[in-house]
């Protein structure tokens, strides 16, 4: 009976860990998406800055 209780307890702990791992995976995936989106925004800012700088250079040349 003692082994059965121990086994049952271990199964419960394994299930809890599986849930925790699933939650952590979801959080990691969300962080990856956020980083990806932040990188895209940063690249867009750089492109816009370069475009503005070129536009300003052309204006200054005139």
Description of the structure:
The longest helix has 60 residues, at 2-61. The protein is rod-shaped and about 90 Å long. With 62 residues, the protein is mainly alpha-helical. It has one helix at 2-61.
Q: How much helix, percentage-wise, in residues?
A: over 70%
The percentage of residues in β strands lies in: under 5%
Distance between the termini: 92 Å
Largest sheet: none
Q: Poorly predicted ranges (pLDDT <50, ≥5 residues)?
A: none
- H/E order of the elements? H
Number of helices: 1
Q: Which class best fits the helix and strand makeup?
A: mainly alpha
Average pLDDT score: 92
The radius of gyration over CA amounts to 27 Å
Q: Which term fits the overall shape? A: rod-shaped
Secondary structure tally: strands? 0
Oligomeric state of the chains? single chain
Give a topology summary.
Elements: H1 2-61
Concise account of the structure shown:
The protein is mostly helical and 62 residues long. The chain has 1 helix and no strands. The chain has one helix at residues 2-61.
Keywords:
mainly alpha; about 95% helix; about 60 residues
